[in-house]
Amino acid sequence: MSATGLEVFDKTLQTTNTWLNEMMEELGPDRHLAWHVLGAVLRALRDRLPMELSVHLGAQLPLLVRGLYYDQWRPREQPVKLRSREEFFARAEQDLKNIRPVNVETAVRCVFKVLTHYLDPGQLEHVRNALPQDVQTLWPAGARSGVQPAA
User: Fold this and answer.
1) What is the pLDDT of residues 66-101, one digit of tens each?
2) Total domains, the chain
3) For residue 52, what are the domain limits?
4) Contact between residue 116 and residue 45 where contact means Cβ atoms under 8 Å apart
5) Residue 122 domain-assigned?
6) The domain spanning residue 74 has which CATH number?
7) For residue 30, how far is the Cα from the chain centroid?
8) Residue 147 forms part of a structural domain
9) Which of 10, 53, 92, 102 is 20 to 30 A from 66 (CA-CA)?
10) 27 and 34 in contact (C-beta within 8 Å)?
């Protein structure tokens, strides 16, 4: 029997929990923290990307995560000119200031790893290429521009 009564809700809950569980392997056993980290990094990524690319990325996210991604989105203010790793980290840290301390680089790498595991490699290639070079280096090895992940 369905937990929510709708298969689409059950599927997004299951997928979201899978992502959070994977993140908690690196961040520790705090689901609340993992949820906030996921949102903070996704929104920093969203705000840095050109609007069309942001929308394409958002369309690939699980329904529940998609809501987190689009939370407080202001399309007219996009893309934000985050030209360095430090500026990208600062944008993510804005959303992380009201939770327990977390290493922002670890948080970014953790979310990039989850995206690499579950989203289309071709789409992620476009996303990576739209980022500053020093942010591109935060993606997992083998997931960078020109390197195809193992099948």
Assistant:
1) 999 999 898 887 778 878 999 999 999 999 998 989
2) 1
3) 7-136
4) no
5) yes
6) 1.10.490.110
7) 17
8) no
9) 102
10) yes
